[in-house]
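ARCHIVE CARD
Drawer: 12
Card no.: 0347
Subject: one protein chain, sequence and derived structure
Cross-reference: see card 0346
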Amino acid sequence: MRRIAAAFCLILAFAAAHAAPPAAPSAWKAKVAQEMPLMGHRNWILVVDSAYPLQSSPGVETVETNSDQIDVVQYVLKTVNGSIHVRPDIYMDAELPFVPDEDSPGASAYRSRIAEVLRNYPIEHVLHDKIIADIGATGSQFHVLVLKSNMTIPYSSVFIRLDCKYWGADAEKRMREKMSAAQTAGAH
């Protein structure tokens, strides 16, 4: 019994010594800066509240920021907008407008603050369970960076899907139409 207890203590000591401490504020910023050149369309950056689940899809990477959620959103958007290759598409939980201050003090103030930060972006509202499922599926093929903030208002996560900055949906549609026309003409 003594040997088991000693082995257990060694395991706990080893685990404590090798546990990753929460990322320092500059560490998560360095992570965003390091990954931005590698990320492209179909990748995601999530800035989530403190209760957002740790997802197990292989491409989903979670980093604890220990930072204010609004500050993290602003930093990520500044970084994305400063890139030459990607632009942000913003998604938020459809439940957020219905979270009352009585159940979550500060919810109304948060909605006002995040609306101001995102005022220049169209926002698509999606049910929380659906977007989490979509992120899990995306993580099986593409990289998703999850930045956990110290936010304690439910349904306050900001989901940023990256899209190509220099090639838009209209250009893609025109190219596909030309391809289809060329295939049709070649079939005759």
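Annotation on reverse: The domain at 21-187 is CATH 3.40.1650.10 (RbsD-like fold). The two ends are 83 Å apart (CA to CA).
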